[in-house]
Amino acid sequence: MxxxxxxxxxxxxxGHWALGDDDALLGVVTSANVACGYxxxxxxxxxRVCERAVERGVAIGAQVGYRDLPGFGRRFIDxxxxxxxxxxxxxxxxxxxxxxxAGSRVRYVKPHGALYNAIVHHEEQAAAVVRALxxxxxxxxxxxxxxxxxxxxxxxxxxxxxxxxFADRAxxxxxxxxxxxxxxxxxxxxDEIVKRCVAMATxxxxxxxxGGSLTVTAGSICVHGDTAGAVNxxxxxxxxxxxxxxxxxxxxx
Length: 253
Known about the structure:
Strand content: 15-25%
CATH architecture: Alpha-Beta Barrel
């Protein structure tokens, strides 16, 4: 039986401001990419999400990003590589504390937003993030875009890499994500999303933004927590994967 992980970006509120339905998504997904306070979240939110994740047997992952609360981490920052390394260690360490208090630990790391997209091609920043994890805990698996500089460098450094696909995002013919500024970059049709996810999980091609055929390698599929109807999308995807004979389970235990 084919197997795949289903992840979502969670804990992305701040103070009294909430984004997405963390509790509902934790009842569906198998891995939680928890914001670590730089692009979103705060101490109270991190603790609550970690506790709920442990209650439901969901793997806790550190979602690290640029220090950019106003821009939700979706703006590129030309940060010095050494500073970026320390920022990543800081974020993973902060979430690790709350995961431990909840009775678990951080199981993997996934970059967020602009940092995720930048290190597809930005060699220096990719190296800085790899260095942070090699220093902090080289046994932690990492999530990233297939074919990215980030995953290549991580693998060369001996880190376990997990290629990731996106349920609700359009792809370019090159296999990168279409910019959110482009119309059609975020998918909303549940039936279309479900079909694409089953195809990606079973090695079948999907259609890129230009109408071409694209095969996406994936060990985990992400449903963004801030996408409209995220909970219904996640449930539909999980049900369809199960019906297609794909076992949905966390990659990190």
